[in-house]
Amino acid sequence: MRVWYRCLRCGYTTEASSWFWRCPKCGGPLDLIIDGLRLTLSERRDLWRFSSVIPARPFVSLGEGLTPLINASFLGKNVYLKLEYLNPTGSFKDRGSAVAVSKALEFGARAVVEDSSGNAGISIAAYAAAAGIKARIYVPRDAPEGKKSLIRSLGAELIEAPSRAEAGKMAIDSVGPSEVYVGHAWNPWFLQGTKTLAYELLDQLGHVPDAVVLPVSAGTLLLGLWIGFNELLNLGLINKMPRLYAVQAQGFASLYEKMHGESMKEPTKLADALRVSNPPRLEQLVNAIRRSNGDVLVIMDDELLQSWKLLLRRGFIIEPSSAIVLPGYMKLLNSNYLSKDDEVVIVLTGSGLKYIDIMSKI
Fold first, then answer.
1. Which InterPro entries does this UniProt record tie to the protein (predicted)?
2. What are phi and psi of 246, to 5 degrees?
3. Are residues 73 and 25 in the same domain?
């Protein structure tokens, strides 16, 4: 397997023999071109079951991936819930972290630097701890206290910033010798982890669904699905691309605004994991939605709160940002974007165990 970086902005291409998180020529986001891709399933019962299509060695793993896929009969006979919140640190981010930290180790990094609203920071901190290297995590000051406590408990250095955007700037500016910036919104290696969700859905269902509905902020899971399903198409293992439906939170809906125009600007108070204002891969996200014949919609906090309560009462201990997919699915159904006959996978991305203090108030 040979791998190259390719800039999505200027087209610059170079062999992926050292760590880059953005284009060294123009600063644009990077994609990976992989030559010699072949799928051979291993006997492992984690993400590295798909190691034959992951251009990294499994230097570190906490058992991420192979999360349950269950039929949600209360939503319909053809609706499935993918329980990504049951990954080791309680979010889908573990898929990306396992690959990104493994690749950082492969390139000789002794420390990783990340900016996050919480889940990615927890995940990178955990995988750095498992790898025996240092982690420095920048978070917005108003990130949930539970998430900040977890990052500290995992041994990472936690630095608070005035805002989510400032956290990113501070993280990038801080990178020193033998350190790498693993910022998940930019990192092409991170997407090589999230793409395994596409392979896993095929592995679990025996085919691909008609549609996938998921929360979207920086879009790393959406792009992972887009990359993974495209690879499966190119390998001749599937014959269709599932429609990808992105659900965004009020006030942080850059993708929706790019495709449909203005939306409500009042920032969400509940969906803290979806607070990215300017995702660096926005054009790539638009392309994934359009070419999959999907769409994007925005959900308000009052709708999100009701769906969070409903899903908790159904036994799903998820964070508010994950609950946003339920009203998203219902709107898609009611507007005929989806039908009762469509086989749909709804992704629940983050654990509610980090939100016990908030649950007591609702």
1. Ser/Thr_Dehydratase (IPR050147), TrpB-like_PALP (IPR001926), TrpB-like_PALP_sf (IPR036052)
2. -95, 135
3. no
Those residues whose C-beta lies under 8 Å from the C-beta of residue 262, and which sit 6 or more positions away, are none
DSSP string computed for 42-95: -S-SSGGGGGGG-SS-----SS-----EEE-TTT-TTEEEEEGGGSTTSBTHHH
Same domain, 216 and 266: yes
Using CA atoms, how far apart are residues 212 and 330, in angstroms rounded to an integer? 13
Q: Is residue 214 part of a domain?
A: yes
Q: Whole-angstrom distance between the N-terminal and C-terminal Cα of the chain?
A: 51
- Relative to beta strand 2-7, strand 13-15 is antiparallel
Amino acid at 51: S
Q: Is residue 170 part of a domain?
A: no
- Within this chain, do residues 7 and 77 fall inside the same structural domain, yes or no? no
Domain range for 341 is 69-92+190-359
Assigned domain for 205 exists: yes
151 within some domain: no
> What pTM did the predictor assign?
0.96
* b (16+ CB within 10 A) / e for 194-210: bbbbbbbbbeeeeebbb
Specify whether 289 is located in the same domain as 214. yes
Closest to 52 in 3D by CA, of 231, 209, 240: 231
Q: Where are the alpha helices (DSSP H) in the chain?
A: 93-106, 119-131, 145-153, 164-174, 188-194, 196-205, 220-234, 254-260, 282-291, 301-313, 320-323, 325-334, 356-359
Q: Is the CB of residue 201 less than 8 Å from the CB of residue 82?
A: yes
| Count of structural domains, the chain | 2
Nearest of 232, 356, 237, 249 to residue 292 by alpha carbon: 232
Same domain flag for 230 and 297: yes
User: Residue 315 belongs to a domain with what CATH number?
Assistant: 3.40.50.1100
